[in-house]
Amino acid sequence: MVYKSLRLLVVLLMASSLSGCFYWWRAYQTYEQLGDFDEYFKIEFADDFKVSFKEPRLYSDDIVNLAHLRPSEERLLESGEQRWRYIFRKINQQGDFSLPEVEFYCQLDINQHDKVAAIIFSPLFLHIAPPEFLALSFRSLGAGKIDKGNRQLKVSPDVLPKTGTALPLKADVVAKLGKPISIEVSEQQEAYLYHFKLEAYEVDKGYEKSTLSVVKLWFDKQSHELSKMSGQFAGLKISINYQNYKL
To answer: Which of 91, 97, 104, 197 has the fewest CB atoms within 10 Å, i.e. the most exposed one?
Structure first.
């Protein structure tokens, strides 16, 4: 009991020191739920990818405070629920929208109690984050360690689940995303760089750069498989090494 009380005190102090606001505490509660994933979350994917929160903790304002911006679209349903959508559009090196248009979105379903009940990723996003691997990534977050200094959650490759699912090939990914801004070639890998612009509103001063999403995709030169993805989406940094999940 003493240990649990001390642990709670440490967590509260950490949340306070990070921002002085308790939305970090609710974010930490969500992180704690990840340790018992199937008890608190449900994953579904077909055309898109959906993570449902069975006992949601985060409020809509928490998301705004964490991202320092408002979404591209906010839709209020007759039921009292909301649909927030963050739309990312591909741009060229000059910052102009690419033609033909290429875009993906992340949607938040917000319930009648103003809590985030689900996250949905659009079909195009699944070409850079294959659903089977994205599902394993979500499930592994509960084993991650919090880096308070960099506000990151890191998961050791040693504890990651494995899958025999085939990874997308470079030709298929490029057919969907189009020409990259640049290509970096190394001995074993090719790295394709893409820029996307987030349509956002009420961006906090000093966070204007968070509307630019730099997405980097690595392909194996021999197999041509997608091997790694990294990117920043509305201030959230994501990096997935798909090779760590393969059997």
So the answer is: 97
